[in-house]
Amino acid sequence: MKFAVASLFAGLALKAAAAATTLDQLASSVDKTESIREIKDVTATFAQLAQFGRYAEMAALFASDGLLVWGNASAKGPDTIRQWLTRDAGDMNGIQPGSLDAIVIATPVVNLAPDGKTAKGRFNGLRFQGDGKGNTRMQGGIYENEYARVDGRWKISVLRYYALYEGNYADGWRNIGHENLGPPPPFHYTPDEAGTPVPLSTVTDKASGNTTDFRTLQYRIDKLNDEDEVRNLQHAYGYYVDRRMWNDVVDLFGNQSGTIEIDNVGHFEGPQRLRTALEQWMGPEGLGQGVLNEHLLFNTIVSIRSNVSLSINNTGIEKLADSRGLEIGLIGDAAKGTASWRFSIFRNTFAKSDGIWRMLNVSISPIMVANYSGGWSNGSMFPSPATISLDKPLFLDYSRDETGKAPMLDGVASLEELERRLNRSAAYDGVENVSNAYGYYMDFIDGKACADMAALHAQEGNKESPFAGFYQTPRRIREACTAAYGTGEITNRSGVSFHWRPQPVIHVSHDGRSANLRARLLQPATGKAAGSAQLRGGMYQDQMALEDGIWRLWSVTIDEFYWGVSSWKDGWSGVKPRAANASNPAPRDLIKQYPPDLLLTEMGDPRETGFQGGSGRYVAWPEIQRMWFGYQNPVSGRVPESYWPLCVPCQHRPEWKLSQHGWLEPPAGPPWI
């Protein structure tokens, strides 16, 4: 059953007259925005617990009548679910020496029901397992989950995993049953519903945790705003690490006496020692040809502390926060023929002073380091299993119980100001929803998916079709898509290239009606035949706008591919360089079939130089393509070497800018508020 389409923001646009929001209405909206966050966090907690074989605690995340459906298997009730999880994992449980159970649940599209008591969520999933004794398993698919609020806490009522591909490490994954894949797992949302994660209730409810105390509401909204900044900081850190941009990483610590601790490597404090830690663990500044240093961040939970610990030595700290998640390192040097996997848990601390969030402590706990050639079948090269504590790093509580008194606040905002601040945090969830919905439609692309994908766009929105150019308006976007993929539905296909868009950095405008987004393209691909497994990566630089109460895609740009594999067996370090005198790939047929409104070749140097379909010589992995950033360093404001803020095609089509159509341009550098 589809949820009704009505936005939290409907009627609240600053450009339109609206009825004044009451304190009770604001309290209800705060509660629902917090609910969206808690639903994402309980799902991430499920994944985090698996890494240490804590299946009883995973089962406790379900409602008393909760249901787990995993492919063709099912279990009902927490105890039965615990038994199934334990039995299914066997010795691939993260507890046995040399074992691994790393669950990734990413790219959420979450929709709250109008009454705020139930919700549905769609996620991408991968699972990497090994028993350390030669046996491995990889699983990939899509979750369509249901959630219920029970005694003030969000619980999983149905975890439904649609198994799409699987395999052992040596052979790589392929389609389930080695058969064609059918239609996509059912969507719980329409394109409009993707852009309205929180519907507007007709009745102001008094849900658990709701309060009309003004000071407490301000405290809760401030926490939501702080979460957004900390999550952005965590994800931006990951992107700097990918490119070994150590100056920018050190900048993220500001003037704090920051530390980096890597289990079995060392404890490093102060700017120069921070750089030493990074170089010792990951290599010198910058990437040379064939060097891969991808550190994919998943299952991230952010928690703002209620008060500042007195044990912190740094003075002037106003607030503290923590993040925890899974880091999967894809490490390699093609010139040397070396490649490895690194699975680590990160638990980081952040500090806010002078109104700016900075990194304070980075803690990395490797749980599996393995050569690419053999994978994790025989355990980890580093560290020895005996050094891993099941309780380190500590877990974060996903719940948002705010029953205690709020701390004293420096100043009290007006009701109108609180509403504006809340809209900015609710925007974060709306932007993430519509971003990920785009990826899910692109996965199983056909005529219907083309129409749904195009419907995600604003009326004056634009989208890049890879290796060709940009099309403006939903009609043009839809017709370009159907020109490439046809108008009919495909119910039987031999393979799928997935379009994950994880690790978002989202900067929202002052009024909460527009946003910039940076996200990865992580593209696992599967097929029916043996040897079909593929993995490659790119980067999105997008903009979104709130149009008629619904979050829409304003501009979609994809820079691809920065790295990839030519075969699962050879991995990312087995890709052979293109000959220096090789011709560029032929232009895409779409350019003649349905000419773009702006060709990539028209954008020219420097933005599209080196990308397929752009200008100049095509640069393909293992060569290093330049990495574009749409924002400055979030702490220092350092401008990246390759900097292209805001709407990518708008420097060539200024009439496509948000500001030309009644929206504010979101910030591209500090201050972010």
From TrEMBL:
Keyword Signal: yes
Signal peptide: 1-19
Residue span(s) of domain SnoaL-like: 33-159, 223-360, 427-556
Alphabetic keyword roster: Signal
Coiled coil: none
Cross-referenced InterPro entries: NTF2-like_dom_sf, SnoaL-like
Protein name, entry field: SnoaL-like domain-containing protein
